[in-house]
Specification:
The structure is a homodimer of 266-residue chains.
Chain A (H helix, E strand, L loop, with lengths): L7 E5 L5 H10 L5 E5 L11 H16 L5 E4 L2 H14 L4 E3 L1 H11 L4 E6 L1 H6 L1 H9 L4 E6 L3 H6 L6 H11 L9 E5 L7 H7 L5 E4 H15 L11 E5 L3 H12 L6 E3 L3
Parallel strand pairs in A: 1-2, 1-3, 2-9, 3-4, 5-6, 5-7, 7-8, 9-10
Helix pairs in contact in A: 1-10, 2-3, 4-6, 4-10, 8-9
Amino acid sequence: MSNKSSPIGIFDSGLGGLTVFKAVRRLMPGEDIIYFGDTARVPYGTKSKEAVISFSKEIAEFLSARGVKLLVIACNTASSLALEEVRAITRVPVIGVIEPGARSALGATSNGRILVTGTTATVTSGAYRKVIKKLEPGAFVFEKACPLFVPLVEEGWCGKKVTKLVASEYLAPLRKRGFDTVILGCTHYPLIKKIIIKALGGRIKIVDSAQATALEVRADLGARDLLNPARRGRERYIASDAPDKFKALAFRLLSIKVKNVEVKRF
Amino acid sequence: MSNKSSPIGIFDSGLGGLTVFKAVRRLMPGEDIIYFGDTARVPYGTKSKEAVISFSKEIAEFLSARGVKLLVIACNTASSLALEEVRAITRVPVIGVIEPGARSALGATSNGRILVTGTTATVTSGAYRKVIKKLEPGAFVFEKACPLFVPLVEEGWCGKKVTKLVASEYLAPLRKRGFDTVILGCTHYPLIKKIIIKALGGRIKIVDSAQATALEVRADLGARDLLNPARRGRERYIASDAPDKFKALAFRLLSIKVKNVEVKRF
């Protein structure tokens, strides 16, 4: 049985989900958090639905066995393709990043025209479009895959001319389409937020799912009276490969100092 | 026991190894070939040595069980990190791409100054440098990781300005270092060969390992009297994920028409 001191489980294909981890930590400093990054099989965004479902279920089972009180899929691709499948095998609530992001975008838009950026798998799944249209059938949603953003961010080229050129290649043709809101539908994208805004012409509201997801986590735990009143929660990091690279990237990309990364191979 | 009609097994982390497949096919039209692409776990170039060894052994066992008479590791990263480990568990000869490429470079260079380009894992392993220095201790070898080349090629941006800019970012600072030969130490790189040459200033000999590896395959089979005299060999393609994407990319990148891709998940 879950109780207040049970940890929250968060997983992602790699490190990008640490943006969600950070938002959860900021909002709920007393919680224990287990973060799992599937660094042996990253990226998910170019893989098939079957593969992403199989990987996600494996990780959900692994984290469930560690007694989490809530599971967060902090990966847009896995949330798009595997949310229902993970829910079906998990006893605790499972929160993905798509619905919180979609709601956030609907709150932000004035003209109902929303652009979604993400990996090929997320965009192909149409997950954001489906959720937005269910909540607001009148909204106009356009989805654009930007597969080079993740490798560019992981190369640390967040401010380089090359990255601006890639963003412009993907997004400049969409400038005249009247979008007033863009969803950063991949956890790496907030790291090149300014470049994305500029490529889109400058005047556009940005929605990233991390903050919205953290709010949903707090609401769920509050409703179940499972918020941990401790002053300072603990963190545990687990990766399926390359713990040193995990540490280095966590610091370089997100200024998170990770002392220890356990390795769990599948 | 192997015989003339046994197939050749070729594997890669994904599709890049099809460049080796093509060279083998051209040189030995009568051979049956089984090609395995580990598309569920691609790329290898950013993963740890342990992970690459474990993946490679799994695939080698899978192909061995299919009675191959020779195994080709058509992936620079896996050849760099896992050749000995695969040899240790395989009864038939195993040929990687590093040694043929290194020999080819030593044949091509006039001044003994060789530049090696590749993935982060290949470059970090120092595999090319070690082999070259063993064969020719007086050679000067410099290795440069170019991790964005693979995603750029897979995006199909082989002629774009962005790709030129990335190549220039990686390679232009090396122009004045007097290299007369560059090894394309990743099976994707031949697809942007011209851009790489230009970024290096234009006057440099290019070595890709595919042709050299195919020659070594023929030499090995010839020496063991295992060359297949058939007129037209068969091909079998197996991938660990996303067979449709495999087909599409094989055609788009390498003009190979793949009719059927079997799926083997690990």
